[in-house]
Amino acid sequence: MKAIILERLDKNASLELSETPVPVPGPTEVLIQTKAIGINPVDYKTLEDFTTPTGIRASWAPALDGISPLILGSDIAGVVTAVGSEITKFKVGDEVFGMIRMPGHGRVYAEYVAAPAVHLAKKPNNITFNEAAAATLAAITAWQNLYTHYPVKKGDRVLITAPAGGVGHYAVQMAKERGAYVIGLTSAANADWVRHIGADEIIDYNNFDFEQADSLQLNLVLDSGGRYPASLYEKHFAPGAALFHLPHPLAPTDMAYFQSKGFDVRYTGVFSEEKAIDAIAVLLESGKIKSYVDKVFAFNEMKAALTEMKKGTTKGKIVVEAVSR
Ligand SMILES: NC(=O)c1ccc[n+]([C@@H]2O[C@H](COP(=O)([O-])OP(=O)(O)OC[C@H]3O[C@@H](n4cnc5c(N)ncnc54)[C@H](OP(=O)(O)O)[C@@H]3O)[C@@H](O)[C@H]2O)c1
Q1: The pLDDT of residue 52
Q2: Using one digit for the tens of pLDDT, what is the confidence trace for 194-233?
Q3: Within this chain, do residues 175 and 89 fall inside the same structural domain, yes or no?
């Protein structure tokens, strides 16, 4: 089969389209013929560097240490072509989607992927493979933060940073689904689109003085963008507020400071979880959330797709279509 291979976890290693054997699914796995692949900033970050701005080794990197060759990617939609001996959830021919082995070695940039069945849900019939592949890592991140780490309640005031991005656009829709009042912190260029996907209010970060403005009384900040330090939001917290920072781990002293004040401020890391992907399938099927696929690339254009994602200007998601469509 064709796969996009990284020889080793090393920023000097190149990403190459090569031939490699089709994987054999284990007893609790299914084999998927890939139809679409969702890409994420973690993919290009893995290619470039493995330490965060605070000097901490990125949470996903140790899981890739020593593996050679590596097949990057976690987000897949496709068709089941074989099932392991213990599988009852899926059968050959089922259309599925999910985030595979995160954190870990996803092996998704390939024509065929052997994936744990518990990382997958059936693709709803009302969405395309591209829309399903989009609604994986980014959607699970939004879901785990808004439904588990801080279960958003009706009437909560939720601020989402980078609300036009992959995580942000699902988070806006999910927070609305939970009945929150949603504020998007973004640029004027993204304002109309973020309102269109459901935000109640937009704050333009180029025209907002965090220190002078009245307190926004936020119950939750989902900080996907990470443009500003957590300390800038403190004045805007309601009692007991949470701030989840996604781009990289925070300094332990900062977390301890906020904890002493009764705030839950921390980095949260997404992980493959059956109940999350099953819940997302239900939200997609009901139309309560929707994937916005901004750009689509061919399988042999993976490098161009990652370069495009790195620009940070995507509205929603970028998807790469597989070899077999
Ligand atoms: N911890 C986790 O488990 C986890 C999971 C998923 C993603 N992440 C991280 O969360 C971040 C967002 O992921 P994503 O998939 O939503 O990415 P994305 O789709 O590429 O996000 C695009 C948005 O990022 C903002 N942005 C662009 N350049 C930026 C810069 N230099 N600094 C800060 N923000 C910038 C822009 O929004 P504005 O102009 O509105 O700011 C843009 O709309 C990434 O750093 C990603 O690695 C972490």
Answers
A1: 67
A2: 999 999 999 999 999 999 999 999 999 999 999 999 999 9
A3: no
Q: Is 84 a member of any domain?
A: yes
Best residue among 202, 223, 224, 314 to mutate for probing ligand 1's pocket (most ligand atoms within 8 Å of CB) is 224
Q: Global pTM?
A: 0.97
DSSP for 180-209, please give it.
Answer: -EEEEEE-HHHHHHHHHTT-SEEEEGGG--
Q: Distances in Å between the alpha carbon of 245 and those of 77, 164, 251?
A: 28, 16, 11
Residue 86 has which token pair?
Answer: 């213990």
For residue 77, what are the β-bridge partners?
36, 97
Find residue 242's DSSP bridge partners.
Answer: 220, 264
Taking residues 95-113, report their average pLDDT.
Answer: 97
The number of the ligand 1 atom at minimal distance from the alpha carbon of 246 is: 1
Its domain, for residue 75, covers 2-135+292-321
Which of the listed residues 40, 160, 202 should we mutate to test ligand 1's pocket, taking the one with most ligand atoms within 8 A of CB?
40
Q: Ligand 1: which residue has its CA nearest to atom 44? A: 247
Neighbours of 42 (CB within 10 A): 20
Specify the number of domains making up the chain: 2
Residue nearest to atom 15 of ligand 1 (CA): 166
312 lies in the same domain as 253 = no
pLDDT bucket at 325, cuts 50 / 70 / 90: low
Q: What does the pLDDT average to over 185-195?
A: 97
Whether 272 maps to a domain, the answer reads no
Check pocket membership of 104 for ligand 1, CB cut-off 6 A: no
Render pLDDT for 59-91 as a digit per residue (tens, 0 to 9). 778 888 888 889 999 999 999 999 999 999 999
Take atom 32 of ligand 1 and give the residue whose Cα is closest: 227
